[in-house]
Amino acid sequence: MVKAVVLGAAGGIGQPLSLLLKLNHDITELALYDIVNSQGVAADLAHIDTPAKVTGYLPPNNGLQSALTGAHLILIPAGVPRKPGMTRDDLFKINAGIVKDLAASIAQNAPKAFVLIISNPVNSTVPIFAEVLKKYKVFDPKRLMGVTTLDLVRASTFASEVLGADPREVRVPVIGGHSGVTIIPLLSQAKPSCTFTQDQIETLTNRIQFGGDEVVKAKDGSGSATLSMAHAGARFASRILDATIKKAPGITECCYINLDADEKCGIQIKNTTENLEYFSVSVELGPEGISKIYPIENLSRYEEKLLKDAIPELRGNITKGITFISEDSKFTQYKHIHENEKTKSQDDLVVSLGVNDLLQNDIIKVIAIILFFVGNIFVLSSMYALGITGTYLGDYFGILMDERVICFPFNVLENPMYHGSSMVFLATSLWYSSPAGIILTIWVFILYSIALQLEGPFTAMIYDKQQESGSQIAELLTIRAPFIQSLASNCDKISIRKLEIDAKRTLEQPWNEFVVLYVKVIISMTFQNILTLSRWSLPILYVLDYDLRLLAIKSDLIFMMTEKPPKNLEIAARAINKSFSICSLGVSRKWGTYYFAGLLFKTYFKLKQQNLCKNVMRSIKAASVDLPPFERFPKAHQVTYLYYHGLLLFLDAEYNLAEEKLVAAFRMCPKSNKKNKELIWIIRGILPSTEILSRYSRLNKLYKPFIDSIREGNVKNFDDALVMNEIKLVSQNTFLTVELAREIAMKVLFKKVIKLRW
């Protein structure tokens, strides 16, 4: 019986991978696990007439544990692919958390299984997996592999295209890692032996390293290399089964591993790679997993340079994965429990003193119970007597008991709160037979006692000093004081920065900060009339809607590949629209109009529902009679509104009006905000100058080919640039506008032809 498990079986990679594994006759049982839809996928695959029995599992009823029990081979494509708008850090946090939880379950339910990691970023997820297995004391480097087979598949395919050969006959080793510059194709060692020019080598290397981008671009950002990755994963799984089940000799593959899998050869590779713990390298597979690592030899100069460039990036990826686990509180606690060498030596000392035997006595346990209940009675009852509510631990640590509890039984002890809490600590230490806890409790009790003795005189001294300072400040800041009257009438001339400097120079902490804050409040009240009835709620409402939009976007991204993708952003748009309606209709809430208008514009454009933006603008126009002046709103919201207003006019082909709004937005944008300035330039009605292009890299990359073609009158280059950038231009709604510029290139070409004829 050979049981294979796919964790993440309902995803974009998981489904085709599960299909390919169902077709493998070496597998007799196929377990499919995912958080949704895995049972549907299993039911579909179960109709295929191959030996493997297919079962789907979901999280309820210990589904993951059941899926893993008895597993021989586990493949993990679980996680999310990198999507447009998602940073590498976003991708890492999501997938790292998923891999960590799966690793913990595998450590407990299938510690001897062969594990193949597909979840990206593999350079980090394999170290994460290894660190979790180490915490559970079940890590075997021979049985954990990161699947880099897709890099080998791409290398064979792309190299065969250049050679005009059958890709099945071409083999190119690929070492390093599994992302970008960490992927190092060894074209000099391709089989059958062949010769590439340096240009071909560099072009092939770049294409192999960034082949995934081709697929993402071809799928218009709606997916990644799911099918080819599924093929690569199934191929590697088949090789593992050949080695571990059929015991076939001489099976070699490249994969991303912990170099301790082969101590002798691993040291050689560590020396070559500046002591990296993980590296993708050629290995020989055997019945127990990795039986041998092949050394890195005979690299060309170009490949040596690739290796040198890859090492820092790979080191950072590995460190990121290891740090993710070392900083995880759950595993930090686990480490403290299981790393007991130091604790053992301390326990030996305690045993030699006879303390442990004493603490294990039943009488001590009874004393602990009594102390625990008595201590809690004092603490909780005194809290009740003082009118203190809330959580037990959250309250008594922060309380200075200014009043005495005079009723029985609380007056048995002075300061029952402190003494009661000490009893509880001592009881807990006695119950768990912890000498260190007893010592700590006694030490804390001594500190309590000292603090209680000092509390009275020390607090009185502070109160006297604060009362004196407070009276002076109160007299200075009363609303009737000449200083405040002058401030209110001249607040437009006040320099907050100068005020802060003067306050720090003339007043002590914290009074200098208090004065500056007070002045800011006066200025805010004068300028913005903050005391209107319900305007105080606007910042809260705005923050809630802003966060709601971000959460909706992220949740839609995470579950985009499921059978029924959610539409959380549409729900968020309706909520933001309600906030906008409240502001545009309520007299005191008009100040929020442009805040929520900007949020709505961003949301509707994200949903590709630009027409709804016009409803927002009509509502603003209808409410404009009693709206505060536009220029009184924060500049950030002014820029947002002007930008989207200009963009809507641009889409309606009202170019002159669009230019007017966009220029106003551009001038109002801070110089430091290059990203927003670039976005505005992209849809302006004029091609940017060379000087402008030099300032904004994104503009330069997008428009320089067109500008060069126009200047040269090179219509062919213009058409090529249009084809190459079509997807980007269409997504920015500028394709038709740039296409019109082709006429300018034609005119320049005609002028050159006329000059030649003359």
UniProtKB/TrEMBL annotation:
Pathway noted in the entry: Phospholipid metabolism; phosphatidylcholine biosynthesis
Assigned GO CC terms: endoplasmic reticulum membrane; mitochondrial membrane
Cytoplasmic-side positions: 454-758
One GO-annotated biological process of the protein: phosphatidylcholine biosynthetic process
Topology class, membrane: Multi-pass membrane protein
CDD domains: MDH_glyoxysomal_mitochondrial
Domain Lactate/malate dehydrogenase C-terminal: 148-324
Reactions it catalyzes: a 1,2-diacyl-sn-glycero-3-phospho-N-methylethanolamine + S-adenosyl-L-methionine = a 1,2-diacyl-sn-glycero-3-phospho-N,N-dimethylethanolamine + S-adenosyl-L-homocysteine + H(+); a 1,2-diacyl-sn-glycero-3-phospho-N,N-dimethylethanolamine + S-adenosyl-L-methionine = a 1,2-diacyl-sn-glycero-3-phosphocholine + S-adenosyl-L-homocysteine + H(+); (S)-malate + NAD(+) = oxaloacetate + NADH + H(+)
Limits of the Lactate/malate dehydrogenase N-terminal domain: 3-146
SUBUNIT field: Homodimer.
Family label: Belongs to the class VI-like SAM-binding methyltransferase superfamily. PEMT/PEM2 methyltransferase family.
Protein known as: Phosphatidyl-N-methylethanolamine N-methyltransferase
Native source species: Diversispora eburnea
